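User: Predict Diaminopimelate decarboxylase's structure from this.
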Amino acid sequence: MSLSQNPISIQGVSLESVANEFGTPVYVYDEEKITSQIKTLQAAFSKVPLKIKYATKALTNINILKLVKKAGGEVDAVSVEEVRICLEAGYEGKDVMYTPNGVSMDEIKQVVALGAMINLDNIPVLEQFGQEYGNSVPVCIRINPHIMAGGNAKISVGHIASKFGISIHQLDEILEVVNKYDLQIAGLHLHTGSDILDAEVFLKGANVLFEAAMQFKDLKFLDFGGGFKVGYKEGDVVTDIMNVGDKVSDAFLEFCKKYGRDLELWLEPGKFVVSESGYLIVQANVVKKTPQITFIGVNSGLNHLIRPMMYDAYHSIYNLSNPEGELKKYNVVGYICETDTIASDREIAEVKMGDFLVIKNAGAYGISMASNYNSRLRPAEVLVWEGKAKLIRKREEFQDLLHNQVILDI
Ligand code: LLP
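Assistant:
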């Protein structure tokens, strides 16, 4: 399906029928797309021993995690809770890469006990890790390579002012701690940002890791993170994954020769795996004309999809109820008491109150960043799998909002 197409149906299941059956707002995911994205990555990196550690923060539903596993993927988690969800989905601890940021040693100990690979991104905790485990637990180190990359400042994390990773300029300090505690460094890691287009950026990162890697004797893998850019709107240039795979794999194989042993190449894609698989179906509550703008007020907002407001992200929107209608210009806005503009000055087939609209690219960082702001309920999730729409998360109910409130006798 091209970006400019109204996604009327997935695997023959009409999105309008999903909206009617499960209500709106509803997140819908296409199993075939998730599986095919993983297959594409596997093909692009087929020359090297590859592990795809899907970045679960993008979309954490257990059924999605199971699909990734079925396609041959493993997982990356950033909190002990994400690690536990992965275990619930059937992964073993050893399948999980744990890449936290700013967490306590207490949380790290919990994750060591669950058997995941720990990826540390600061020297004080590396020191604590050494004191606690010495060389009995292998560990990975997240390097900040000081590369400015990514679609916008908020998702650019490998530059010198970023909180993530241990600066490549602090390599000597890392080595001091490693030697002091005889740490078993199993891997080195980097992740420079999200929405990265250019193969050269990935290669630049890889070269930083190669250089650092020569200082460690017993590495098992190098992890190049995620960040592949997918298309959000017509005309978007996307990461040429075959080209990146080819170039990075060749450089990697050459490095392995120099290093003197075979290593695994790990990747942590989030958006690449799930962004395009997901759709958020909403309903037009009101169509409101002002002297300047025609607004479509939908039964959703920044509480369900915060990307447009947080990153100025562009998400294509189509009218499912009147796909052939005359194109008109609208601002699509949410029902939250904030300026939660989902799209501005957007051409959409004429919308009447009650029509269903579909918002594309809603698979990654959609429901996983959703909240209950304005005491609104989070949507249901539906997976289209083997040609059938299946509920995979119930819509929240009013009682869920009260669930953890402790009512005093006031
Ligand atoms: N690995 C690490 C260590 C990460 O921090 C991330 C994303 C990934 C992998 C996956 O990156 P991806 O392939 O999905 O670009 N909420 C933002 C994106 C934040 C990404 C955070 N880290 C958005 O919606 O654009």
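The pocket of LLP is lined by residues 55, 58, 76, 99, 155, 191, 194, 225-228, 268-272, 307, 311, 364-365 (CB under 6 Å).
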